[in-house]
Amino acid sequence: MRKTGNQFFLLLFTILSAMFVWSAITPTDRLTWWLEVAPVIIALPILFFSYKHLQFTQLAYFLMLVHAIILLIGAHYTYAEVPLFDWLQDVLDLSRNYYDRVGHFVQGFVPAIIVREIMLKKSPLQQGRWLFFITCCICLSISAVYEFVEWWVAVYEGGAAEAFLGTQGDVWDTQWDMFTALIGAIVAQVALAKTHDKQLLNQH
């Protein structure tokens, strides 16, 4: 079991390392790159040093990797200029590059499983409506704090942080970002709760 776990983590770390190196090579905007990869750089040591006290399910770790990859792609191109979504914008005659929306959906989707797991392991909460509701509230709070960070960076850096904001001229971009994260948190719990519960049960 331990060998299988080690192989799983080695695979995740190898994929993450390869994506990180690719992302760091000649990104569109170096300042934006640093700002976008900061959550990955901060999260890795936290996960490493807290592992003895809080071991997440493989589902949670896999979703963390997916989130990190999305951040690294956005960091490399900037969220408003990811080529595939530029192509979709042209083909579907969309009003903007929607990679940013994908990023914020995942910003709610992935933390929902992480928050749900922490709450089930470290709090008196059990599976049910209150867990669902509180998880959504926490994910929405995380999204709001991220919008605060974007605001503070924009105030400090001025025009230099425009690519980091990625508003693409939408005056309601902040509200859309938080709403999209909330939808992600709801979808994650509806779609993955049973699978998540099974993995939690197998950990005991």
Entry summary:
With 204 residues, the protein is mostly helical. The chain is built from eight helices and no strands. Helix 1 (2-24) packs parallel to helix 3, helix 5 crosses helix 6 and helix 5 (99-122) packs across helix 8.
Care to describe what's here?
By secondary structure, the protein is mostly helical. The chain has helices at residues 2-24, 30-49, 58-77, 83-91, 99-122, 129-157, 162-165, 173-203. It is built from eight helices and no strands. The longest helix has 31 residues, at 173-203. The mean pLDDT is 90.
Task: Summarize the topology.
Blueprint: H1 2-24, H2 30-49, H3 58-77, H4 83-91, H5 99-122, H6 129-157, H7 162-165, H8 173-203
Number of strands: 0
Radius of gyration: 18 Å
Helix content: over 70%
Order of helices and strands: HHHHHHHH
* Outline type: globular
Content-based structural category: mainly alpha
Sheet with the most strands, sense and barrel status: none
List the main descriptive attributes of the protein structure presented here:
0% strand, mainly alpha, globular, 204 residues
